[in-house]
Design a protein that fits this description.
Length: 1210
């Protein structure tokens, strides 16, 4: 080969094409020169080296292209095997380290044109067609391995035009299987799919101008093979389809982020060898400015050197451009003029239109209808004449025989139906051919034009099946005897044209079948020329690797689009364990690819596909004990494999799951109903398994015909009922099947769904919670509907499990609970609504809801105070529950409430939260057996000084008052204990240790103080029960005396005394008078005494502080009135008590005298003389004996008149 390439003389052009049934032994060329040898002449060079190799290879190719005969039926197959042996030898030498020199041009021409034509011819023969096709595929694979860089367009043609059509639609299943297996062999070749995608799917028209989307077509054909069935309805190619999809996915999976480390080219390295300057169509599209992409396309140049950071972005840009061109072609095919206008709008044609640009557009834009192109070329206007001339300029007719040039020209369009249009087009061809081939024997452009029409007529005549009398060579010569400027056309020219047309009909190569292409020498020669141009050469490995990394999302999307349906179809129809496991494993790979490449919806689609095959877990009302869901699941490899794969995907790719969580939750609920779910799924940190087991809901029987919830039915509408062959109960005992089911569920680690949820992104976590809520709502809706219809066995077990899952998820995600709790609250509202009261187990559901909320509050409030209002707001739903259910729940509520308050009372900071606590305390008090619990809860709240605040004060005080009022008649002792709780609140309010507050907070405290005094003086201190009344007076006494640290303003004290305290004492005095000779008199006397003691104690402590108030004088006057009334009322009933009151008054006045308050200059803020008021008031109380206090302004002995010495009469 090396000697022949450089040491032997080779003609400048390969020998010309000959017309024969078999493929010629010499390489075919569509370029014909007069000085070239004829195909039948003997080689004029040595019998060694390249000429000899050329002749041998030509002979083998002629064997492949020959039609099988009766005596030599395997001749084509034998030729293919010979070629295969030769190529294999080259591969072996290359593999062993031997030198492999590039083949001489003549040999490459034979491989590119003649061999491929012969292979297409052999594939169309009916004898041993499957064997031939299998051998052809192997030859194609070896050609790819050895000559990828120089024969990629030919490999594309072989796969796209021969193998794929057979694999896609052949009715002969054996032949179809052979094509599919050959296709898989191609896909298994290292780098084949990657090379195909970058060079064929990302290039306009593909690498050889044949068409684009080869990678996508391969994926589609492989996937569609899963649906092929035989005459008996049995699937034929499940294994091939499954293996093919896996091969594709594995190829995509090999695209890794470290791909740059595997290539040596720098990032800026060009991905091709274009000699054209940058065309910049990427920028043009964005600015809507015209960019000429058609000239380089028609010339076979790259659009690679686009201003960008890397070559891979140029590849991606061309891929994006292909989408735009598809839209352009669609519009042009519908209406040519509007299509051209659209091209102007998107910057693909200039404004105004230029003939040069339009002609290149017609020639280079893929997807244009050949008929539409012909219509444009045939238009009459001058502008279209220019387009025709420019269109002809895109062809190189130099060296082409006339018929070959006409074939090449007419391959680009379909002649329009109107004769005048055809005439215009053919006239342009004749002119261009005459210009480029002046020595072809034609004397003028008109002669070429007339001959072209004659050839078209000859083609129609010879290949019209309805024409019984065919035109002969003599007839053809006769009609052309005067058409060469009055002279006959050259006989040799007419003879060669006639011979070629009689064998090969004019056909548009893009519309030819594989068999027809074996006769289209123009197609193969054009393809060979394309392979020598930049657009016919593959992207270099470095740029390809970068492009794959950048476009892996698009690659996977193209493959996934068809693969999903195929895998689902295989799972539907197959019961073969190996096939099922392969299918689910492939879905797992797809999920991984979708996750890593961030393709939305892939993981969800995988889960939706898998859940369709878990029907063995479904409850069916007609099931027998031996066909329980747990046993059916254990027997179903399809269900087990699907479930295991689902939870593996949920564990690994949870962040990508959205709608798929509904499938996961549906499966969890099925596992639960089958009694296979373990308590680990609801266990929380620090909780023993015994407690989790106790909380775990128990599946309850369904009604006949009931299959779970409405949501279950919706899911099941998507789920196929598996074939009986998949449920092989007869092959295993019940225990074995159940063990298999348990083992499968155990391997799923379903509990990690909750335990690891803290690692999910927020969006996915919310989707999971929403799916659980949706299931719970649907289950409740069904249970409520059946309960309303008279059913008494509509269970709420799945709703209970939904609650437990939600609570566990909340605790696991405490730092994010505010993001999803509103959704849970909505579900809790449904669970506790009175509309569901007729549902069996509703009380249990309510109990779970409230206890779960209590647990969350207990665990979260000490650490997440900002959640208190939110969580306690949900707890307040208990107040809206049906009273009978609340009564039943009182014991559990009281127990949980004590735990909550003992741990978290100081962390409840809002009035709303405390009002919820108050509701729960009152609920606890609704049952006699847990009254002590309610008291304990109230004590925990009221007596914990860290818990009491201005926010909790009123709710707790109201609760105390309600409970006091509720039990004062039936259980006064308990009421007194509740009063002690209130007394603790009073003590907190009046305590000197109350923290300093802002002015606003101080105003709040003062309001609370005044409100509390009013409640005591107007309510509790007036209770009919003497014990409760006396305890209340004591509490009021302590509160008033202990309020000094509050620094109450004087006017508030004056107001309190005038409006609350003094009226209370006065009313007690009147009660004593009214109770004379009654049994209640002693208690009333005691109340009055206690009230007087309280009054005098308050005045002793605060008079000096408040006497400067303007209204103090009136209060001071009223005080003496009340004291006089009290002594008067007691004088006739209990003189000893009356005397005690006098002693109290004396003590008050003596104290005021001692501290200097009571003096002759004592006045209030309004200037009232308090000395006179005091002296006058004391004088109105007989027997008071305080006259000595008013002598000379100093303290004197009682009985001495002011201003006189002791013993002197006043």
């Amino acid at each position: 080969g090396e000697h022949g390439e450089h040491g032997e003389h080779e003609p400048s052009q390969p020998p010309p094409m000959t017309v024969s049934v078999s493929v010629p032994s010499a390489p075919v060329s569509i370029r014909a020169e007069s000085n070239l040898p004829s195909p039948t002449s003997k080689p004029q060079s040595s019998n060694y080296g390249v000429p000899a190799l050329t002749e041998v290879l030509g002979f083998i190719i002629s064997m492949i292209g020959s039609k099988p005969s009766k005596h030599f039926p395997e001749l084509p197959l034998a030729g293919i095997e010979l070629v295969s042996t030769c190529i294999r030898a080259c591969m072996q030498r290359n593999h062993n380290g031997g030198a492999f020199h590039p083949l001489p041009r003549s040999l490459m021409a034979q491989l590119k044109q003649d061999l491929l034509r012969a292979l297409f011819s052999a594939a169309s023969h009916g004898v041993h067609q499957s064997k031939c096709l299998a051998a052809i595929c192997q030859v194609g694979i070896m050609l790819y391995a050895l000559f990828r860089d120089s024969m990629l367009p030919q490999i594309e043609a072989l796969v796209s035009l021969l193998i794929l059509p057979v694999a896609e639609s052949s009715k002969r299943l054996l032949l179809r299987r052979t094509a599919l297996e050959g296709l898989l062999d191609f896909c298994r070749q290292p780098g084949f799919l990657a090379t195909t995608y970058v060079n064929c799917d990302c290039r306009i028209g593909g690498v050889g101008g044949i068409g684009d989307d080869l990678f996508k077509r391969i994926c589609t054909v492989i996937s569609q093979s899963a649906r092929v069935i035989d005459e008996e309805g049995q699937p034929k190619f499940h294994g091939i389809a499954m293996e093919g999809i896996r091969v594709v996915f594995d190829a995509i999976n090999d695209i890794r982020d470290d791909v740059h480390s595997k290539v040596g080219a720098p990032l800026g390295h060009s991905y091709g060898h274009s000699r054209r300057p940058s065309v910049g169509f990427g920028e043009g599209l964005s600015t809507r400015e015209y960019v000429d992409i058609w000239t380089p396309l028609c010339a076979g140049e790259l659009l690679s050197e686009i201003p960008s950071s890397s070559a891979s972005s140029a590849i991606a840009s061309e891929k994006e451009l292909m989408t735009l061109l598809a839209s352009v072609a669609e519009r042009f095919n519908e209406n040519q003029k509007r299509g051209l206008e659209y091209c102007q709008e998107v910057g693909l044609l200039p404004t105004p239109l230029a003939a040069h640009a339009v002609s290149r557009f017609l020639k280079g834009c893929p997807g244009l209808s050949k008929a539409a192109i012909g219509e444009v070329l045939g238009e009459r206007e001058q502008f279209y004449e220019e387009i025709r001339e420019e269109f002809c300029d895109t062809f190189n007719f130099a060296g082409l025989r006339f018929d070959v040039a006409l074939r090449l020209f007419m391959d680009a369009f379909r002649p329009p139906g109107e004769g005048q249009k055809i005439d215009r087009i053919v006239q342009s061809f004749g002119k261009k051919y005459y210009e480029q081939v002046p020595k072809a024997g034609l004397k003028s452009a008109d002669a070429a034009y007339v001959l072209a029409f004659s050839v078209i007529m000859l083609n129609t005549d010879l290949h019209n099946t309805q024409n019984k009398r065919k035109m002969t060579l003599e007839d053809f010569a006769r009609i052309n005897r005067n058409t060469n400027e009055g002279d006959p056309m050259p006989a040799e020219l007419l003879s060669s044209i006639y011979a070629a047309i009689s064998v090969d009909e004019f056909k548009i190569s893009s519309e030819c079948s594989a068999a027809d292409l074996s006769h289209q020498a123009v197609f193969w020669a054009t393809l060979a020329e394309m392979s020598a141009k930049p657009r016919g050469q593959p992207v270099d490995d470095a740029a390809m690797s970068r492009a794959l990394l950048e476009m892996r999302r698009e690659i996977f999307a193209d493959a996934w689009e068809s693969a999903l349906g195929a895998i689902s179809s295989i799972l539907d129809a197959s019961s073969n364990p190996k096939t099922v496991k392969n299918a689910t494993a492939t879905l797992s790979v797809a999920a991984d690819l979708g996750y890593r490449h961030k393709i939305d919806g892939v993981v969800d689609q995988v889960l939706e596909t898998l859940v369709e095959h878990t029907s063995a877990l479904d409850y069916r009302h007609d099931q027998s004990p031996s066909t329980k869901p747990s046993l059916a699941y254990g027997a179903s490899i399809k269900a087990r494999s699907s479930v295991e794969t689902m939870f593996k995907i949920a564990d690994m790719y949870g962040d990508s799951i959205k709608n798929g969580w509904a499938c996961i939750v549906a499966t969890v609920m099925k596992v639960f109903a089958a009694e296979l779910l373990t308590p680990e799924i609801i266990a929380v940190d620090g909780e023993s398994m015994e407690l989790a087991t106790a909380r775990m809901p128990k599946p309850r029987p369904r009604n006949k015909g009931q299959s779970g919830s409405i949501f279950t039915r919706a899911i099941n509408s998507l789920i196929s009922i598996e074939a009986d062959g998949d449920l092989a109960y007869a092959n295993a005992g019940s225990e074995m099947l159940r063990d298999m089911a348990k083992k499968s569920i155990s391997s799923c680690s379903i509990e990690s769904l909750v335990n690891d949820s803290k690692f999910l992104i927020v969006e996915s976590l919310i989707e999971l919670i929403s799916a659980i809520i949706a299931w719970g709502k649907a289950a409740l809706a069904l249970a409520t509907a059946e309960g309303a219809g008279g059913s008494t066995t509509a269970p709420t077990d799945t709703a209970e499990l939904a609650l437990e899952l939600l609570f566990s998820l909340s605790l696991r995600n405490r730092d994010r609970i505010t993001l999803f709790w509103p959704r849970i609250h909505e579900f809790l509202a449904i669970c506790t609504s009175q509309e569901s009261a007729n549902v069996q187990g509703f009380a249990v559901l309510n109990k779970r809801a409230i206890e779960g909320l209590m647990r969350i509050c207990q665990r979260l409030l000490p650490y997440k105070e900002d959640t208190a209002d939110m969580l306690l707001g949900s707890l307040s739903l208990v107040g809206e529950m049906q009273p009978s259910i609340v009564w039943e729940l009182a014991p559990s509520i009281s127990t949980e409430l004590i735990t909550l308050l003992s741990q978290s009372a100081p962390h409840i900071r809002t009035e709303t939260g405390w009002r919820t606590i108050a509701i729960l305390i009152r609920i606890s008090a609704s049952r006699e057996e847990v009254l002590s619990h309610s008291l304990q809860a109230l004590q925990l709240a009221c007596q914990n000084r860290d818990a009491v605040s201005t926010e909790s004060y009123i709710p707790l005080l109201e609760t105390c008052l309600q409970l006091i009022d509720g039990f004062k008649g039936s259980n006064p002792d308990l009421a007194a204990e509740f009063l002690e709780c209130a007394d603790a609140l009073f003590a907190w309010l009046s305590s000197s240790s109350t923290p300093a507050r802002t002015p606003t907070a101080s105003a709040t405290v003062l309001d609370l103080w005044l409100t509390t005094v009013g409640i005591l003086t107007k309510g509790l201190c007036r209770e009919s029960s003497g014990k409760l009344r006396h305890a209340s007076i004591d509490a009021l006494h302590r509160m008033l005396i202990g309020s000094s640290s509050l620094n109450l303003p004087p006017d508030m004290w004056v107001q309190t005394l005038r409006e609350l305290v003094l009226p209370l004492v006065s009313d007690f005095s009147k009660a004593v008078a009214a109770s004379a000779r009654k049994k209640s008199l002693p208690e009333h006397i005691k109340s009055l005494q206690m009230a007087i003691d309280m009054l005098t104690s308050v005045l002793v402590k605060y008079t000096r502080l408040i006497s400067d108030d303007n209204d103090f004088g009136s209060v001071w006057e009223l005080t003496f009135v009340v004291l006089r009334e009290s002594t008067t009322s007691l004088s006739s009933t209990d003189k000893a008590s009356a005397e005690k009151i006098r002693e109290g008054a004396k003590t008050l006045l003596s104290s005021l005298k001692a501290d200097g308050t009571l003096c002759e200059t004592w006045k209030d803020g309004a200037g009232k003389d308090l000395w006179v008021v005091t002296r006058t008031g004391a004088a109105t109380m007989p027997g008071l004996g305080v006259d000595s206090l008013f002598v000379n302004g100093s303290v004197t002995a009682p009985g001495t008149a002011p201003g006189t010495a002791p013993g002197t009469a006043p």
